[in-house]
DUF4282 domain-containing protein (Agromyces lapidis), 65 residues
Amino acid sequence: MESDPTIDPSFFFGAGLIGLIIGLVIYLAVLALMLWIGYVIIKAAVRNGLREHTMWLESRRGPLR
């Protein structure tokens, strides 16, 4: 008995579909990570800016009420 040397084309379709899904998940994960890191950086910058501004105001006219 000899085995058939041809490969079923549906094998490549299935492998390509799985690769596409994995690639999409990785792409979305990287995008979400970039957005989260950007959010954290901007949040820290705004917090530091407000703190410095409040300290500057208090140094000019005393503690804020």
